[in-house]
Amino acid sequence: MLPVVYGQQALVKGKIQLSTGKPLAYAMLALYEKEGDQLVKGSLSDSTGAFEFTAVPFGEYSLYVYARSKQFPKIALYTFSIDSLHPQLELGVLQVEAERLGVGDYTLEAVEIKARKPLLEQKIDHTRVNLGDSPLARGNSMLEVMKKLPGIQVLANGQIKLLGSLSVRIYIDGKGKPLSMQEAIGLLSGMSAENVESIEIYPNPPARFDASSTSVINILTKKKKMYSNVDASYGQNLFPLSGDPGWDYYNLRAGANLYFSFRNKINISALLNANQRHEFSSMKETYFLSELTRETHSNTFFKPRVLLANLRAQFNLNARNELLLQTQFLGLTTPRSARHENTIRSGAAPQPAFSTSFNSQVEDISPQLLLNYLHYFDQ
């Protein structure tokens, strides 16, 4: 059985190595629009130098690798286009000279963007994405930003993958109980990216995080003595479907945020966010079964609604002791409907078609009260 999948998005794969033939492991790569300087997707190569970009919209792109050198902060590798005729693109092996990366051992560290902080920083055990001064954060929710970060995939079923693994834990400011995947999706879809200072991505997290997870995403919020804002955003998706202009597919979000710090001894934050989306995905699959051919056309509709309220108080008792009190309410409703139309052909003659459909709705109301005490021991 050989499946062939068609859709509105594509898969791009390849491998990167030095001109000496040595694999470029854990390199940060990015897809930019060919015309302009808009970041579309990020990715990390694995230990063999292999990388992939999933769910890439059709269009024309330039592929870059981030370097340490100030002379070449990012190095252009390849320019290509993807469309419905080429939904999967294999770039093969791409080579780059070690001198252009700025280091002999090709350890990648940072990109310098004019007067701003570097967008991406490569640390010893993690990658840091600085959103504080980045245009990437403006008007976007954290869930939308996550879709563009290196090594992260946000799946249609509400799961988050990091370097292909579903064993991901998400923390806010590195403290407290890690969020479940459902809590994380609800929180990220309602959280404004403009309230986030940076994101830390740990493929192999240190001991201070939950040992049950193989990877960690830590979201660091902005910290000022006094900070507050009210924001709202509206996004409109246009789907090129026959007879459907797509105006009913939207993303509506509104929220408010308050942060107060007293001598860095008492830190209090309050967050209220509401989000409603209407999304659509379409996929066509063709299966070749001996002398038969089966075509399946699937349309799936989502209408998730999220309400999040969070109140957090952190008390820094002294240099070694902290007390955290947090209360949170998360209301999540996810209606979903799907229709699958199947056609079977024997040679050129089509057989009678059949279709299946289903409707589901997941509702989750999750109040939480968390009291956390943290003590730092001498090493």
Q: How would you explain this protein's 3D organization?
A:
The chain is mainly beta. It is 5% helix and 58% strand. It is globular, with a radius of gyration of 23 Å.
Set down the secondary structure blueprint:
Blueprint: E1 2-7, E2 9-18, E3 28-33, E4 39-44, E5 50-57, E6 59-66, E7 74-82, E8 88-96, H1 98-101, E9 120-122, E10 127-130, H2 142-146, E11 152-154, E12 160-162, E13 168-172, E14 175-179, H3 181-190, E15 196-202, E16 215-221, E17 226-236, E18 250-262, E19 266-277, E20 279-289, E21 292-302, E22 305-318, E23 321-346, E24 349-350, E25 354-375
Parallel strand pairs: 2-8, 13-16
Antiparallel strand pairs: 1-20, 2-5, 3-4, 3-6, 6-7, 9-10, 10-15, 11-12, 13-14, 15-16, 17-18, 18-19, 19-22, 20-21, 21-23, 22-23, 23-24, 23-25
* Number of helical segments with 4 or more residues: 3
- CATH architecture annotation name of the domain at 1-105: Sandwich
* Low-confidence region ranges: 1-7, 103-115
The largest sheet is: 10 strands, antiparallel
What percentage of the residues does DSSP assign to strands (E)?
A: over 45%
Write a brief caption for the model.
By secondary structure, the protein is mainly β.
Task: Spell out the key features of this protein.
379 residues, mainly beta, Immunoglobulin-like, six-stranded mixed beta sheet, 5% helix, globular, disordered N terminus
